[in-house]
Amino acid sequence: MEDDYYSLQSILADNHKLSCTFTMDVPGLGYLEGGSEANIQQNAKVELPFWLAQTLSLNEFTTFPLPPPYSSRVKSALNASAPAVKLSHLVGSGGWWYRWGWRIAEVLDNAPQAELLDMLLKAFTGRLPSLQDLSAHHASSDRSIPEGGAGTGEAFREGMEGEERELFAIGQESARQIKAWYDADGTRRAVVR
Q1: What is the reported pLDDT for 151?
Q2: What is the 3-state secondary structure (H, E, C) of 19-74?
Q3: What was the pLDDT predicted at 32?
Q4: Which among 51, 68, 98, 133 has most CB atoms closer than 10 A?
């Protein structure tokens, strides 16, 4: 995953909101609460976009709990059947579940960070075979991901998050190119090992 200032995916991932708790009184930021107070009081809870919550948390102004898309409930569901979990529904349609989780892990302490990164890795490796199979299977039939559909494959496609959608498109194009190469000139080419 790229962490580029100009990356649209990074901007979208950093725009998710977190429920933060201020650890101290902060003068002049009362407008963040949406009220008429000039200051934020200690223990005030405020919904902040991740890019702001990250900065405030790294400077120890705020703390935040792990967001629901990365809860133990989601982890249990992923351990039971990673392809059955609709990651896009956890962070908004077509959201960036892996990227946002990775960004959150950057802010966490060592133990929670390792646990979150392990969950992201296990989810990715658990979902990758289904992603590869589906992209190869649909390479010759269509070029787009439908909004919905029936069957296990269609349900998986509907639940793919942003990174997976990009990999799906790459897998489809690769399968098309392999098929075109294989069928070139109407003869089969031997694969050299």
Answers
A1: 47
A2: EEEECCCECCCHHHHCCCCCCECCCCEEEEEHHHHHHHHHCCCEECCCCHHHCHHH
A3: 76
A4: 98
